[in-house]
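Operator note (shift B, R.M.): manual run for FMN dependent NADH:quinone oxidoreductase requested after the automated queue skipped it. Running by hand, logging everything below so the morning shift can see what happened. Input copied straight from the record, untouched. If output looks odd, do not overwrite the archive copy; leave it for review.
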Amino acid sequence: MTKVLHVSASVNGENSNSRQIALKLIDRIKAADSSATVIERDTNEAVVSAITGETVGAYYTPAENRSEAQKKVIAASDKMVAEIMDADVLVIGAPMYNFSIPSTLKAWVDLIARVGVTFNYTENGPVGLVEGKKAYIVAATGGVPVNSPADFATPYLKQVLAFIGITDVEVVEASGFGVNAEEAMAKAIANVEAAKLPVAA
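Run finished. Output pasted below as returned.
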């Protein structure tokens, strides 16, 4: 059974291009594995909030020494880390806002990048602890081509995923919705169909 974590970041909700394309990809995964399950994580929900000094302090306090207040501060982070650890596949809907990712998606990154939990520092550099996962980045843009010099979103997400140990990453390009939405959607759907499906868990 394949467990899919779908991370949505667009402020447009159900009308989001990145969400619609990500769902088409998830439908392909489910068609190939009828037992596949999906967990939804919308980064626009209030629980996905910017980290604070208290958050970082709780991160760096050994679990056995954390106060009840610290446990409460990182409860949302713990839940989101658990979602990633339990998933076989991540599908991240990543619209490009002003050449980068939405602030809420950055907040999600800050909640799942945890020293000693999803990565460790070693004498040989950082080592990711999230292994054996495949990730798809559905990169939707208004006009900036994915992987162009002005695309700071896709390289950043690939770096973050690699940092925590996810190196099997496929980008599903969905560029140009602000120029010609119909053509952009058609190309994006073709890219979904061309994506390599994960091996069923």
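Quick read of the result: Helices lie at 17-32, 53-59, 68-73, 75-86, 103-112, 153-163, 181-194. Residues 9 and 78 are 19 Å apart (CA to CA).
Leaving this for review. - R.M.
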